[in-house]
């Protein structure tokens, strides 16, 4: 690990051991909002959909004619991946059609891991201080913490990998342990708008610990993982990112972290559990609304457990009434989740609007559940090109985004971006300039100013400003 320490020192970073956390990445100089703290190519990665294995694009795809599993967008990506895929292709081609269909992205990630290690051991592809198998070996597996059911699943997956590779020197237990490492350390690769594209293993980025109040953000530029500072990080500050969606109650966040990453978070936000502010916030995010629609108070269960009482005005809400509305929402949600074709897509939107109407009666106006329903309706309306109505729903979500996310958060920036695009398209130019400016203020920090996405956003803002200036001068004339 001495080589890694030297490589990180050249990047003004150090690795320290923090009690209760293990290895941590720490700054060796001051970093400022938007600064790239570290970036890394994946040791291995796979797409989780029908995408090019080299660049994750979805256009001009051709399937590998031999293994019939991997896709490429052209000869350039195929050549860049050939040394690794040649071995993978040979292994996959030995399988019959039934077994080949059972090769999931996780199985492929494991295959590529072993094949990449083999190629590096044989000096066919180079290894560096930040790109070698020893970094994978150093990752935590949490084998003693996983359930028996999960162990059985890893063993089954390991058997399939062993069958595909047919290497006598590797053992099932080792493969199963690495699958456990994937679960705790692999990252979902997303595009600039945070839509998932694939999965990658970034061993150095995996040193960075979690906080529900992170000081940094992980975004992706193609396959490269890039960690940027969200605020000023003085020398000696531990770099922290969020592993999960943080817009939820403390209980919800803790549950997600325990199930996926097998640890209990003790960040400043989680340490407030049980305190009044935390109880209030959680009741607003995931609890019920006051029966008085003009009151924005939050409800807590009464001491006898038979009702909920508003902590603002004291009104009681019957438990059975809440249960009745919740049951109606559940039934409608099951109906809405059924696969739908474009022909009855509008019907699905109608169902979600009924859910929204019930949720406004049941949940607090700043409820996460209500926000998610409106987000679903928004995306559906955009698919149907119902732009004006989509804009109305986008504006409904903004206040909740502002409440549940910090002032500098990529999801808030992207919501302003969506709002601005819709406003500009609908010729609400003045509003578009305001929304796009807010988007730029956030996304230039989280995504950087040199990425194609932000460059396109800046161009859009310049054009919107020019259009607004023209409209204003035309009115004066």
UniProtKB/TrEMBL annotation:
All copies of domain SET, residue ranges: 11-244
Ranges for domain MYND-type: 52-89
Alphabetic keyword roster: Metal-binding, Zinc, Zinc-finger
One of the record's GO cellular component terms: nucleus
Keyword Signal: no
Lineage top rank: taxon: Eukaryota
Residue ranges crossing the lipid bilayer per the database entry: none
PROSITE patterns reported for this sequence: SET, ZF_MYND_2
InterPro entries: H3K4_H4K5_MeTrfase (IPR050869), SET_dom (IPR001214), SET_dom_sf (IPR046341), TPR-like_helical_dom_sf (IPR011990), Znf_MYND (IPR002893)
Residues of the signal peptide: none
Name of the protein in its database record: Histone-lysine N-methyltransferase ashr1
Organism encoding this protein: Pisum sativum
């Amino acid at each position: 690990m001495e080589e890694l320490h030297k490589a990180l020192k050249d990047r003004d970073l150090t690795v320290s051991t923090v009690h209760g956390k293990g290895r941590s990445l720490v700054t060796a100089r001051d970093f400022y909002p938007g600064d790239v703290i570290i970036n890394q190519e994946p040791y291995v990665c796979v797409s989780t959909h029908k995408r090019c294995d080299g660049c994750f694009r979805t256009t001009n795809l051709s399937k590998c004619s031999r293994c019939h599993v991997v896709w490429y967008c052209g000869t350039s990506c195929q050549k860049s991946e050939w040394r690794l895929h040649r071995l993978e292709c040979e292994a996959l081609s030995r399988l019959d059609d039934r077994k080949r269909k059972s090769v999931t992205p996780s199985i492929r990630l494991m295959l590529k891991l072993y094949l990449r290690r083999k190629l590096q051991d044989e000096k066919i592809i180079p290894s560096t201080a930040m790109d070698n198998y020893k970094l994978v070996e150093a990752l935590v597996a949490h084998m003693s913490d996983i359930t028996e059911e999960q162990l059985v699943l890893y063993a089954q997956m390991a058997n399939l990998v062993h069958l595909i590779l047919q290497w006598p020197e590797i053992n099932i237990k080792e493969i199963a342990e690495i699958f456990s490492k994937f679960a705790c350390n692999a990252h979902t690769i997303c595009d600039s708008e945070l839509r998932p594209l694939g999965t990658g293993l970034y061993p150095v980025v995996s040193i960075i610990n979690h906080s529900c109040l992170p000081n940094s953000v992980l975004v992706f530029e193609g396959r490269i993982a890039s960690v940027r500072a969200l605020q000023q990080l003085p020398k000696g500050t531990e770099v922290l990112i969020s592993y999960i969606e943080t817009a939820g109650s403390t209980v919800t966040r803790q549950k997600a972290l325990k199930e996926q990453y097998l640890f209990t978070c003790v960040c400043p936000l989680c340490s407030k559990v049980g305190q009044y502010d935390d109880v209030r916030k959680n009741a607003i995010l995931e609890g019920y609304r006051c029966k008085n629609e003009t009151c924005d108070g939050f409800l807590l269960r009464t001491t006898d457990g038979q009702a909920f009482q508003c902590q603002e005005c004291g009104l009681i809400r019957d438990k059975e009434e809440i249960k009745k509305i919740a049951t109606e929402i559940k039934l409608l949600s099951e109906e809405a989740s059924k696969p739908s074709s474009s022909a009855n897509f509008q019907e699905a939107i109608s169902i979600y609007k009924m859910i929204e109407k019930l949720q406004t009666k049941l949940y607090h106006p700043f409820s996460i559940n209500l926000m998610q329903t409106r987000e679903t309706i928004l995306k559906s309306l955009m698919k149907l090109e119902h732009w004006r109505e989509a804009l109305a729903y986008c504006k409904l979500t903004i206040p909740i985004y502002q409440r549940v996310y910090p002032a500098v958060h990529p999801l808030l920036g992207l919501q302003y971006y969506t709002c601005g695009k819709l406003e500009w398209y609908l010729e609400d130019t003045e509003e578009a300039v305001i929304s796009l400016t807010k988007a730029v203020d956030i996304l230039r920090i989280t995504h950087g100013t040199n990425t194609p996405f932000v460059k396109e956003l800046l161009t859009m803002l310049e054009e919107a400003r020019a259009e607004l200036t023209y409209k204003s001068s035309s009115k004066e004339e």
